[in-house]
Amino acid sequence: MPTYQAVLFDFFGTLTRSVQRGVAHRSTAELLGCAPHTLVDVLDRTYYERACGRFGNAEATLRWVCEQAGVHPSEDAIRSAVASRHRAIRADTRLRDEAVPTLAALRGLGLRTGVISDCTHELPAFLPQLPIAPLLDVRVFSVQVGRCKPDPALYQAACRRLDLGPADCLYVGDGGSQELTGAERAGMTAVRLAAPDLAGHMVFNADEDWIGPVLRSLDEVVDLVERVPGRAGVPVPAVPAGCVSA
After folding, report:
1. Average pLDDT in the 161-184 region?
2. Residue ranges of the alpha helices (H) in the chain?
């Protein structure tokens, strides 16, 4: 029986394949009367403010984004753009083929599972419709907590909801938002997923200097927890530096 009692996952780039903004985002810009490159620029530079839920609900947040972009759409346009953005982000989200089998296998081993994600309002709205939803015991979203990784508040929230200590949890992520460093500082064991497709993944504030354990495929998590002889886990071969851009 594994020593860990729970395995917690990042969402984008970890349970999903590499994420890039697809063509559907152009419709959002058009509805707002904004040049697509201008909207993307504002979204990129304000990501963490928005992912902390600083500006209120999805409509209030998009209204603030429009102000930063210098456009002033109608309220009807804002509402339509919120729906358009939801569809666009959902279209960008493709679960890894291994996601459901990995979560099911971990639960079959008696472990609990969860997601800790930096995200804006869209993910909490559509995650319940994804096939992984019934396999998650806890879901922690930055936009609801009001903090982003690597803030310990997100990891602590997951532990509280599971009624577990940080040392009971393994954290798996691609390394965005310095999430691996944050998990370790919170008292968890962390491993980095460095799947080949992540070379093109959209990521902010990556854990560039991560020197801890590295996995090449999500399903290797199951092998890892089955082999763990103690709390700190066992050595996992590292990917040579420069092979993957997280």
Report:
1. 95
2. 25-32, 36-45, 47-51, 58-69, 75-92, 99-108, 122-126, 142-145, 152-162, 179-185, 220-227
Which residue carries 């096939």 as its tokens? 131
Q: Read off the pLDDT of each residue in 132-150 and give the average, rounded to a whole number.
A: 97
pLDDT value of residue 71: 96
SS (H, E, C) 5-74: CEEEECHHHHHECCCCCCCCHHHHHHHHCCCHHHHHHHHHHCHHHHHCCCCCCHHHHHHHHHHHHCCCCC
Could you tell me which residues come within 8 angstroms of residue 124 by beta carbon, excluding any fewer than 6 positions away? 139, 141, 143, 144
| pLDDT at position 109 over 70 | yes
Which of these, 208, 16, 187, 197, lies nearest to 115 by C-alpha position? 16
What's the token pair of residue 192? Answer: 């980095």
Q: Which of 190, 150, 194 is nearest to 174 (CA)?
A: 194
Collapsed DSSP state (helix, strand, coil) of residue 139:
strand
> What's the rounded Cα separation, in Å, for the pair 115 and 138?
6
**Sign for the pseudo-dihedral over CA of 114, 120, 123, 125:** positive
Answer for the pair 187, 208: CB distance below 8 angstroms, yes or no. Answer: no
Quote the pTM value. Answer: 0.88
